[in-house]
Specification:
By secondary structure, the chain is of the alpha+beta class. It has eight helices and 27 strands.
Amino acid sequence: RVSAMSALGIVTGAFGAVWSVVATVLWGLFGFLNDFKAAASVAIFGWCVGLFVGTVIVRHWRRAVARSERESARKLAAEGVKSRRKDIPNPLPPDVIETALKHIPRWARDPDWNRAAFLNRVLDALWPHVDTSVCEVVRDSVEPILRDLVPRNIVHWIGFEKLTLGPTPPTIGGVKVLGSSSDDVVLELELQWASGADFVLAAYVFGVRVPVRLSDVQLVAAVRVHFTPLVDELPCLGGLEVSLLGMPDHLDLAAVVPPGVDLMALPAMDVLLPWILRKILGPMFVYPSRMIIPIMDNSGLEPPATGMIKVRVRGGYNMHKRRRDGKATGLVLPGSTLIGFGGERYQVRLYTREQRKVMLKSKSRDEPTWDELHYFLANPESTLSCVLLTMNMRELGRCEIPMRLLCDPSREGKTANLHLPIEDPTPFQEPEPEPPVPPKRATAADIERLNKEYALAMKNHREKLARLRLEQLAKAKLPEPRPNTPTVAIDLEYVPMGAGKSRRTSLAGINELAGITSVASPGAKTRSGEEEDEEEEAAADAGNREGRIGILRVTVNRAVNVRKADNAKQPQPVCVAQISGQKFVTAAPVDKTNKPLWDETFLFFNVSDRDTVSLTLCDGGERGEFLGECKVDMRKITRDMELSDMFHLEGVKNNAQIFAQFKFSYLG
């Protein structure tokens, strides 16, 4: 027990000694930490204050440095501008800048105009040949006119001693293509020409030479070039119509007269020249006036009409008289076997010009009745063709009669009853002789001989056709149709255009065309000349009030933004053109579209210049859904005798438009 107590004392003493040591160490550590905490708090606070103050000081210092740099740069720039202004002159006046901006090409100012680099290259390549040909044409055409105008006993000779357009071709600044059909193309060109043209016109008056020289032409103008018509034969361009869209923006030239005086250097010529241009060039070349330049004979078209013929097709006879050889169906000839039609339908086509062919209603009877009235343009050189066709457009027979005797002015108002015999078309289908191709080593004599042979062959070919047509005209004048020959019976009346006729004749022709006839009673008394003159004046006044009549050519080209009312499906539009009780319908496009392209031409006769043309769009056919309509007053067309424009369609909510062309010519 004693030993246990002594051991406990020893352990307690040791623990007390250790605790005293640990307590001393812990107490010292806690004191150190308290001192460190106070010192650390002071240090951290000092660091934070120092960082904040330093940041503010550095920021203000940087702003001061940047401000001083900007001030220095501004001072340097101002000094540089002052130094440069001493060398550069004053800026251009505003009016000079405005004038300079006008010389910017139009394609850079107007999005509708395009650059014309290709045209300029073509014109540059062709200019030497154009210069030669134009000068030859001017010399050959102008000199005879001048020599006829001047008195020969005073002016012994007059002509061009020098004529050249110069080596520099015109420059096309821009080109604008207007909407057109397949019959023509319209271009508007911005023309600039600073040429070296030199024209010397000399006249010998009593043996003294009097020259007038024009040179150094400078021209800036807007020109419209109408390529019309486009034909199927080379060079495919019948002619050109050139007109100015306005007076030239700039025109200057040198005009020297004896004794070496330049007229353009005289006072007030800068004012006198525009006045002369406005009075002389304006009525001749400013649109709608045009300068027509033919390229092909008769501009590639058929000869102009001298009148029109009214053809009333009554009916037919012996349509079942024909033969078949297994390969083709031809008309009956003397000695051939006759067989029946077998119920097949057939068609008859009439025309005097290739551009307008009229198809009669299809029939299947042996003696059909049509009772249709049609109008055709004609001249003494025209030929009335009547062609019999199957439903698949295979030609069965033909009759061609010349119009020279029927279009005589003495036959005005007279009706010819004709029975057109439909005979074998083979003689009329013989091709024309082809032009000879001379061999490579042919001499001039060989070429001349070939040309003579070709001219003789063409003459024989034309004479053969003329004999055939005269024979058919003689058969057509028979009072009864020929037996065993298919025949079409017509009543033909010729109505002249009225050029060169008296006032009475023109009014009578107009009244006949309008369907107005006057019948005198058998007991009527003969009127005096004064009464007839008064009647003529009254008729003329009545004609002016009711309007004159003529022929209207309508070309329906295309339409845009054509939509149905529900906008669910695209339409299949057709255009119905009607005026003066006449109506034509275009063919429907193959696919449904809101941008149809028809490009069809219709001819309306007996149209009054007080009437209105109606163009109606329908879906699928004439009786389809209404797609819009536009009406054009004839007075707008007769103002320039033609009109080409995009017309807005009324009666619909969308922005539908149609492009159409109208051309009008008076009868009498």
